[in-house]
Design goal:
The structure is a single chain. This protein is 5% helix and 40% strand. The relative contact order is 0.08. The chain is mainly beta and 1207 residues long. Strands 1, 2, 3, 4, 5, 6, 7 and 8 form an eight-stranded antiparallel beta sheet that branches. Strand 60 and strand 61 form a beta hairpin. It is globular.
Length: 1207
Amino acid sequence: MASAAWAVLQVLLLLPTHSWSPVGAGNPPDCDAPLASALPRSSFSSSSELSSSHGPGFSRLNRRDGAGGWTPLVSNKYQWLQIDLGERMEVTAVATQGGYGSSDWVTSYLLMFSDGGRNWKQYRREESIWGFPGNTNADSVVHYRLQPPFEARFLRFLPLAWNPRGRIGMRIEVYGCAYKSEVVCFDGQSALLYKLDKKPLKPVRDVISLKFKAIQSNGILLHREGQHGNHITLELIKGKLVFFLNSGNAKLPTTIAPVTLTLGSLLDDQQWHSVLIELLDTQVNFTVDKHTHHFQAKGESSYLDLNFEISFGGVPTPGRARAFTRKSFHGCLENLYYNGVDVTELAKKHKPQILMMGNVSFSCPQPQTVPVTFLSSRSYLALPANSGEDKVSVTFQFRTWNRAGHLLFGELQRGSGSFVLFLKDGKLKLSLFQPGQSPRNVTAGAGLNDGQWHSVSLSAKWSHMNVVVDDDTAVQPLVAALIDSGDTYYFGGCLDNSSGSGCKSLVGGFQGCLRLITIGDKAVDPISVQQGALGRFRDLQIDSCGITDRCLPSYCEHGGACSQSWDTFSCDCLGTGYTGETCHSSLYEQSCEAHKHRGNPSGLYYIDADGSGPLGPFLVYCNMTDAAWTVVRHGGPDAVTVRGAPSGHPRSAVSFAYAAGAGQLRAAVSLAERCEQRLALRCGTARRPDSRDGTPLSWWVGRTNETHTYWGGSLPDAQKCTCGLEGNCIDSQYYCNCDAGRNEWASDTIVLSQKEHLPVTQIVMMDAGQPHSEAAYTLGPLLCHGDKSFWNSASFNTETSYLHFPAFHGELTADVCFFFKTTVSSGVFMENLGITDFIRIELRAPTEVTFSFDVGNGPCEVTVQSPTPFNDNRWHHVRAERNVKGASLQVDQLPQKMQPAPADGHVRLQLNSQLFIEISAYFQTGSSMTYHFQEHYTLSENSSSLVSSLHRDVTLTREMITLSFRTTQTPSLLLYVSSFYEEYLSVILANNGSLQIRYKLDRHQNPDAFAFDFKNMADGQLHQVKINREDAVVVVEVNQSAKKQVILSSGTEFNAVKSLILGKVLEAAGADPDTRRAAASGFTGCLSAVRFGRAAPLKAALRPSGPSRVTVRGHVAPVTRCAAGAASGSPARELAPRLAGGAGRSGPADEGEPLVNADRRDSAVIGGVIAVVIFILLCITAIAIRIYQQRKLRKENESKVSKKEEC
């Protein structure tokens, strides 16, 4: 942690005070001006338009001219709306609106940008999320602030989904400001040489910042060297940036250099990428885009002791004007600064400090190639062949991560056969099919699924067919002597079998990018394909290569090797000592105590003291006696003999090394209940314990390199051996036997037991000048026993018991494990909430344990079911893990259940509240609690810009509602959810005690009313209700057994959700008579575990420091539990002061009072009162939580896969 803080401090110290940065120079701090509203109509274009009044020129925000917005001719995923800003601008936000006064709006869309209207790049919202949330009606405005912003001239909005009852309809705005750009372009045979000012003093630091756009995948961006072979070089190698550092006495680096720092991937995509290099003596900070590498050199560094010149674009050969020693850079540099100096501006003005070599220009040409992305295995591109020609000639380039995929199919005329070109195992294979012959195959190339561009040339003439991949050629002889090309070539995949195309695919479809396709001698124009003028296609993205590197950053932990395909990544954990999807879970126990608990005998074992933390496992001996002793041996001598030496000189200084590292030893000692290390000392001649000035003549060094002069189990600095502590030394004047001054052999057994100082790493003994003195000692191994996290139980034997822990932080990877035993049928073990995210582990039923969470992709559940009940008052072990690949849950030895995560979904779990116990509340007659959804659903600047309509944008097509209640009152209103549009949901008990539910999802129609005659539920017993709606299908479950499904007729969308009310409703305008009667009567009794989606109203009422979302009227008080105690009409025992006017007043957390006002800044609670449940927990690793967290940026995406299959 200290090193990380120091690295951050170094970055702050290294940054100069100039206003320039790697993103751009001189940009104003306020960069949110509207950019599109003042543009002429000609600046807007689109894929198509429904009519002239629906054209793109009418798509400006809040405008009503024309038809009130842009609508394409056909609503499908290939439509787009484009803006030309006139010049490159910095774009910081976007906003969308539907077509004015219509049913046409877009609910999600992609955003793409480009410098020149070609080679588009998709904007990714915080890494893995591509789609943007759109609108829920025609007129509200939805803003999205871009983090980070980008620079572009052209923007495209690509609708992904739209109102199913209407068409695509959009009005848009773009926000930002002007962008300063100084560009210099290199053609691969040119360079700039910048001669620095010669200063007498060595500079304090070097800071270089720039942006680059690469046309080729290899080339040197900058180079600077010194007199003795020391140099720094920044080079693009196969689309990755490599920073070479050589501190001296070496030639120009090859790919293997003394120090290399590598960052980035796929940087040859002809898009802009930012670079920042900071050098401060031995400290190096290297940043590419959002990823930073910190490097600390050992010893003295000469990185800054370099010549007074630096070259950009290449390394010129001395004495030769246009000769370069390495491959030069082909591309553009933008806003190139060296220690705050604008190098490009100096070059433009032909300043004497700049020497230009070769063809250096100051404008960046736009790419002319048009890539095509094959998005799925069903993608294909069908192009006409040169039918009738006596040859076959096709060339193209491709890049992919997939090991297999169909690339090209073609038929030969006159019935002479067909061919298939495809990838298999990363190699290119050509299969030739001819009548009367068995298929013939040739192979070329290897490792072609490396994400790099590879060139393919296929040709056939007369009796041979040739295929060339890069520089690898393969030849296949043909049977027929005359070759004619067929009618159609199929790239990437085939049509459905029913199409009759004859296309054969020997493997799955190709996922990746193609470019530079030629058929015969004619280049294919993909833009013509996009416009429908050439060929046919399915599921393509034209004019963009959408390849991404899923191993950057790598989510494989503990050194696991990351590999990837187009859709996902995987981790090879072999040899790491860890397992799981991301190599997170250790294969080894944390301690010998855990090995003993599993019944293992004495022997050598690996232990992993920090579990899934960053420290690796190490080998120890476990001695299974009455206690499980962990024995860590050192590599020092078994016995050390110490003889006399001149006064003041060390007689002996011996170091002791251990097989485990310092961090591993620290973790093992911290985990143990007790540690000790024995020192057996024999002395043959008297010696003085101290020098004449009182300086100790012997000491030892612990694991933190601190010197200790005490001996035995005493307190530090006591300077006593064990006999001195026990009072049985051979001479009572001394505290050690060897200090007695007798001419005979004596011995001391010293036990060092201050575990925070152990193990011993060095022992030093001095001499006071006494001749012929002699001693010998033996240092034993480090011995530890006990496991503070393993045998650490907490009994929750009162309803108000709780425990405090640090808050649950496991953004990318976290695991939770604990033991439990109980006799009740259900309850929540632990729960933590964020603004939208949550995590929960619960006993849902006697035979079910469920792990549920939401990281932004919607709620996900993993459930383990047992053939025997868990509430058998026996210990059961639970282990849950959630990472970017998915979630897993295991209970005891039952089969582990897993749920994969979507390939491009949200990945970070963001929690900001306490781990909280469930709350039960007693409602007296006439009382109510109102939960306001406005704050719950507001997404700050990323939702509507109109304050008055923030809450009106909430439209629900599904919701899950749970509650538990206990009452004898009829009629009763259990729950009422209102809407700004007079829509509502009510859950009531009728006069006969039956459960009734009413949905009104269209204010112009009567509500759907359903009665569930399970039994009289106003019987004073605890009942549990779960309501799950998906569109028009509503499933109601009562008491975890009775279940009924109904179909709504009034609609499928719950619009403009306003509030949730428990208890008496003062105004239920527009409600049906039964609901109004129940609302007037309210609810008297106990409510528990109330949830509406992610909202937990009863918990919100007990958070006085949080947002004021809850209004309380009358007497509502938390209670011990709803399952027992006072009946309806007799208030239950209050555990906290009365809640009134919104939130509860806090009281002391003593016996009989719940935790209401504990420290909420960084704390968590896990407890035994979960609704009606009292749990007794035996928890592993800090009671219930063992967390290893990684903090890397990779985030979210809108999942297109069924949530029943993925989370």
